[in-house]
Amino acid sequence: MTTAAAPPRGTRPRQAARVRADRRRVGPLVYVAAVVVALATLTPVVYAALSGFRSNAQLAATPVSLPSPWIVDNYIRVLTSDSFWRYALNSSIIALITTGVVVVFGVMAAYPLARYRFNGREGLYMVFVLGLLFPATVAIIPLFLQIRELGLVNTFWGVALPQAAFALPITVVILRPFLMALPQELEEAASIDGASRIGFFWRILVPLSGPGMVTVGVLAFVGSWNAYLLPLLILNNPAMKTLPLGVADFNTQYASDTAGVLAFTTLAMVPALVFFLTMQKRIVNGLQGAVKG
What we know:
Oligomer: single chain
Number of strands: 0
Radius of gyration: 25 Å
Largest sheet: none
């Protein structure tokens, strides 16, 4: 029977002192900056959620105040609307397709860039890095023409595939150092046991890459869920609208239901927010693994 070796006497007090010293080095400006960033991030969300409990007359009279009285009709009207649930289903399908394509093709692209040595490897990796500099809006017109030529207009794939393509650069940038950090001895041991490189990829590397794959998957899902411009151009059929496009239902030629828009957007944020918060710990672990690599 083996026993764990006890740490040398005096090690724990020194570690505790080191932790306290690190905490003292965090100045008050760091906390002030954190509070400012948190307020700037949460204020629009809280404002939209509270304003959904107000009427349009209240919003016009006092744009910034608490609901008085509280009105739940806006949220009930959205939740009982068939269009809201249809838009949520469409957004879910597109987001899941995008996430699946990003994770599968992202890890397959990052694997040779991380584990193989060949001429032009760094140049090929720089192509993905440069892809971070070009958002979808830059190439939206030629992209739309290409999708139309492929006959993918008014299809979920017509939205999901371009979204996955523009998410691949950040996916490869995150996964490559993560895969490079895996010990080389694992691949050598698998090779001795008779596993090919493809076998090592599916049986060992993919299971060990779980945190990194979850990270890029969550980022792709949230990005697809909130996308507006590409679905606006590709999906002309009202039955295929996504949640961001559904906001237009509250605006007519002569009037705008601002309170309804705020209730709709608040409810539309909930699934992505819950999904992100549920996976938050895994995202941090995946990003830390990428940074260490």
